[in-house]
Amino acid sequence: MIRAYLKEPLHWLQLAFFKPVTLQEEARRLTRKQALVIYFKTFSVGFLFILILLTIIGIVCKLIGISFEWVKAFREGLIVGLLSGVISGRILGLDRGLVFGLAGGLLFGLCNGPDFGLGSGLVFGLAGGLVWGWRARSGRWVFWLIGGLLFGLSSGMVFGRFLGPVWGSDNWGSEVLKFLMGFLFTYPLLFFQLYHLPLPFLSRRLLELAQADRERGLVEISFIAANRPFQRRAAQKALTAILTNDLRLVDSIEKLARTGELFRAFPAGAKHLPAGFDEARRRISSLAANARRYGSGALPTKLILLQTMAKDLEDFRLVIAQTPLPIGVNFYPIAERWLEMVKATEEELRRRLEFTPIKNPFIAGNALQEVDGKLFKGRRDIIRALEENIIHPQQRTALLLYGRRRIGKSSTLLNLPNLISAAYIPVYIDLQEGKWREGDGMFCHHLAKAVYRELFQAELSYRLKQPAESEFEQRPFTELTKYLDSVEVVSRRTSKQILITFDEYERMEAGIEDGRITIEVLNQLRHLVQHRQGLVLLFSGSHRFEELKTVNWADYLINTKTLELSFLEPEEARDLMERPVPEFNMRYEPGVVDRILELTHNHPYLLQAIGSELVNQMNTHNRMTATMNDLIVVVQKTLVSTQAYFHNTWADECSDEEREVLLTLVAGEEIEQDHHWAALQSLSRKEIVEKDQNGYRLSVELLRFWILKNQIGTDELRGEAPVTIYGHH
Given pLDDT bands bounded at 50, 70 and 90, which one contains residue 389? Predict the structure, then answer.
């Protein structure tokens, strides 16, 4: 309560003794009634202040042996001085009343209490030290107090020496002389000490104020620079320091474009600004204008603007080097750094203008055709296993190429002509096409036609006629048997084996289930496996026979041997990313490829997807080297572009219990292995999870990110990108 009451009077007292110009400006905005209220509130506090001060001085005088007349000091100091202050304040106004009333009351009391010379000197020195020390509000408090006392002692000895005789008389003339001499010398000298002399550490205080409240700080600094001649240099120093700190933060063309805004607080042509300030402002504003045009210009225009800015900065650097302190010494390093920045940007832009877009070799989503053979990497283990199992036809086995979706089954089958020995003629059949489910006759016709097409392209179709559709309408299986007899003749004559590959074999089950083809098709295929020396059947799909429910495939395809297609080997995956094709010229910063392999677990589809997005990223920014920051951006895009793949894995390949297990693993919680044993085994067979030394974890880290983002609702890539993208948790 008391603190709140004292706050306003102390504010006006501070203005009266330390900011008289500010006091005048604020007093003009007050009505006579408001000024009178403030005046009496302030004098009530001033009354107590003088009463306490006179008491302290009286005690000090007694202690050091100086006589002090208590009654006279309080009577004339408090009554005559304060009364004259009230009258002068009512007549002359709030600002003059405060100064004359408080100073007059203090002087009357002090001049009539102790010996004038030493006593008044001590009092004014003590008052000055106290007030100025309170204003400093720091460790310099004691410094100002001691300084004020020393000033008071010296001034007191002078007055005691030269005015002592006059002071001894006790008439009205001597009283008036006491007041005039005390007021005209001691108070103006104290006022000059506090107000006009340069204040130590002022520039630092102003700078601290601007850092805490920029708008208010700039207003105070500009006011002092314009209205306090003796403090102008400190204000100029603070202004220059503030602007210099702002300009040092400019480290890009985009920030340079906004530097003109930094000068709004500094009026053009103001006399209080340092020498060279307006010239620096003009040149920097010109640079900012060109930088703004740079942001919206085409590449050739940007290059011209950068060249102009570089020339302007070279001129600016020469001019600023000859500019006096403080502008010259502060702005010269800034001009040099900006020149380096502009030249570096110019060099980068020249490289961009010379940039040839990278041809994107990656194919994400579609199977690699035979013509994409350069992009097909690895799978040598599968090819070796395949050749080992078909080299002995007497074994009479069908083959199942099993692998999860997008693992590369179709790409492997389509590229068999480039991979397998010339002793085999691969015949690729995509059972996703509806023509294979149009009926038994059409199935047999298309099978014969596919074999003929491959033999014809291999120039091995001598005396082998192209099958006609009408021939298979009445007796399809009989006609197929007759046609394959002719094919086997070609096989024996050329020492070639026909490798018929049925991709997405599960689609046949859908045709049988809805009655469009009959189970006799499977009986015919079993007959081919068992009795055709020159033919080998290879089925490919994302399900094992036992996982399908409509048809008992194991009953029809006896002794089928499963070849499992899994992730690429690390060397194969690295080769795919770094050398997808021989002419690939995109480069990677150290660690980027390693992190890609970790994120994808060497999954070929995901590798292709990230590679494709990275090439697009490089072409967008006209760069040749992919960085870890580029990878962060690309992973976000890849999670969107591969949404269908991850959703299929989550919704179609996993049961409710398996999804529950995945959520538990993603959340980092411990799995009850006994309770979820079947689900864990199923997920392991599908290569969705794998076992490590700490238990189970998701095989592909990108799937973990997708689940976090789409099923849990946590965008970990945005919130913790450095942790999740740069490395494992």
Answer: confident
